[in-house]
Design brief:
The protein is α+β, with helices and mostly antiparallel strands and 202 residues long. The chain is built from nine helices and four strands.
Length: 202
């Protein structure tokens, strides 16, 4: 398999972590949709990464679809429960984390626009979503060691990628000072090589 990826993408990071935790071999192909002459749209009509190219040359895109595929194709170290409310719980965590990521990316990209074109109100709307999501994550996590169950799941991976991206692109949002339980979770995640080896790079 090949993973079309950008090292700054938090969605790519999520898939790289899943691949590492599942111990799946793959080739990393670096390409960014923001670089002129990129080939991303050749593999994903939406022009986004990550894209997973399977052995038969078919492609999968959207990190949620790729993560679910990888968890089913390799039965070891299951990251998503097979069915029932436990499965929905993990997917709900992923939806919350990905929603916060969407808002974080949108806020960051808007901030890159020139002052005359930038929309402060749009940035504030996105940042409000991030603030609400972080509060919900902290409340949901409580005193639990993991987001779901007694071991690492896709919920923790998704949340960890969100926290890492906010620190990377929006460092003025000091979530680790405000939410000690999220900081403890992220510190624990960063002790895993799958997380430590995929820290976003500028």
């Amino acid at each position: 398999m090949k993973l079309i990826a950008s090292l700054t993408s938090p969605y790519v990071r999520k898939i790289r972590i899943v691949l590492a935790e599942k111990k799946i071999d793959y080739d990393l192909v670096l390409d960014s949709p923001w670089v002129e002459g990129n080939q991303v749209a050749k593999f994903n009509p939406l022009g986004k990464v990550p894209v997973l190219i399977l052995d038969d040359e078919s492609t999968l895109y959207d990190s949620r679809v790729i993560a679910e595929y990888l968890d089913t194709v390799a039965p070891n170290n299951r990251l998503i429960p097979a069915s029932g409310r436990e499965r929905i719980s993990v997917k709900r965590w992923e939806a919350l984390a990905d929603g916060a990521l969407d808002a974080s990316v949108a806020a960051f990209l808007e901030s890159l626009r020139s002052v005359g074109e930038r929309s402060p109100s749009s940035i504030e709307r996105q940042r409000a979503k991030i603030t609400q999501a972080l509060k919900a994550m902290s409340e949901e996590l409580g005193e639990q060691p993991w987001c779901h169950g007694n071991s690492l799941s896709l919920a923790d991976i998704a949340v960890g990628c969100t926290l890492g991206y906010v620190s990377f692109r929006l460092p003025d949002i000091r979530w680790s000072e405000q939410y000690a339980n999220l900081a403890q979770l992220y510190e624990k995640l960063m002790q895993r090589s799958s997380f430590a080896d995929t820290v976003p790079q500028a």
